[in-house]
Each structure stands twice: as C-alpha cells, then as structure tokens.
Specification:
28% of the residues lie in helices and 17% in strands. By secondary structure, it is α+β, with helices and mostly antiparallel strands.
Length: 193
C-alpha cells in the first residue's frame, strides 16, 4: 500500500512539474530571452536585453473593452520598474479588428491617452496564421500553453526568461493575484534611484 502511494505521489510530482519552461531546440535552451522583436519604432530588439528583469508580456489593443487596462499597466510599471520590472506591450489585431491602427498611430494613442512609458512593440500576430515566434513559444511551449483567447492576456516572466504565470484578460494588472505573483519573483533589496 505504501509503495503504491509513493508511486502515485512520484507520478503526480512529475505531472505537476512545469513542461517546456525552457525547451531545447538545436541544442539551445529556449525561453523568452531567445527571441528578438521589432519595437514600435521599427528597431529589432533582443529580449535577452531584459536578462535579470521581471517581465509582464501583454497583447494589447486600442479599441477593446479591456483597453483601459493600459492605465493600471502603467501604474504597475511605475511602481516596480526601479526593482527590475518591465511591461512589454504587443499590439495585436486578431480579435474583431480591435487594433486597426499603424504602429505610429498605436504609439500616439498610448502616449496621449494613457501616458504609457513602458516598452511598446510593433503590431504582432498572437494567434493563428502568421503567429510570431515569441507568441508561438508562449502558447505552445511555455508551461502555460493555450491559444490567446482575447486582448490583454498577460504572461509573467522571471529574470531568467522563464514564464512563471499567465493571467487572462479579465485579470486587472493591479489585481492581488497578479501583484503577489510579481512581488514573489522581483529582486529584493533594489531601491529606486
């Protein structure tokens, strides 16, 4: 009986272990830092530049019921950026065409309406045909797999580039569950300049 219980516990532990946190591809370990993406200004930026920083990766849209989440995203960014936190916004138009603007229009909208200062990236495909390599990794290889359901899905990434949590559109960026998960992985002892 005890042996059977131990086997069940062992199997349960294996099943509960994150799968795909860092998959090997061609001998290289894959994680969020493995990708480069175009910024909203058209420059190619390696996400490895964020090594050591905690990231919240969000697919955004300017004409969505969740668009007001730009304000709490900015508040979260302002509160924790001195501790090594970055919000990375990836505008996407896959959901009822709610991000129809050009990159320049999106940048203007975000800075004028919500006064965002966190990094904005070029419009990206986050599901379906033409999905970006980053979002393919997030939705097919990270421990939190599954197609993006709507705008403002959020992936929390630790300083090593591993996805550690995922939050749906309805989870406000300042919700306790998200803030607690963020605070749990932020470097301690870092203070604002």
């Amino acid at each position: 009986m005890i042996r059977a219980l131990m086997i069940c516990l062992l199997i349960g532990a294996v099943v509960l272990m994150p799968t795909g946190a860092a998959r090997a591809q061609g001998g290289k370990t894959m994680n969020v830092h493995s990708f480069s993406m175009k910024t909203i200004d058209g420059d190619l930026k390696s996400l490895s530049d964020y090594k050591g920083k905690v990231l919240l990766i969000v697919n955004t849209a300017s004409r969505c019921g969740f668009t007001p989440q730009y304000a709490p995203l900015e508040a979260l960014y302002e509160k924790y950026r001195a501790r090594g936190f970055e919000v990375l916004a990836f505008p996407a138009n896959e959901f009822l065409g709610q991000e129809p603007g050009s990159d320049a229009e999106i940048k203007s909208f975000c800075s004028l309406k919500y006064k965002t200062t966190f990094p904005l990236y070029a419009k990206s495909v986050v599901k379906g045909k033409g999905i970006s390599d980053l979002y393919r990794y997030l939705t097919e290889q990270s421990p939190f797999q599954g197609e993006i359901a709507w705008n403002f899905n959020k992936f929390l990434v630790n300083g090593n580039g591993d996805v550690v949590a995922r939050f749906g559109s309805r989870v406000d960026p300042l919700a306790n569950e998200l803030v607690e998960a963020l605070e749990a992985i932020l470097p301690s002892g870092v203070t604002a300049p």
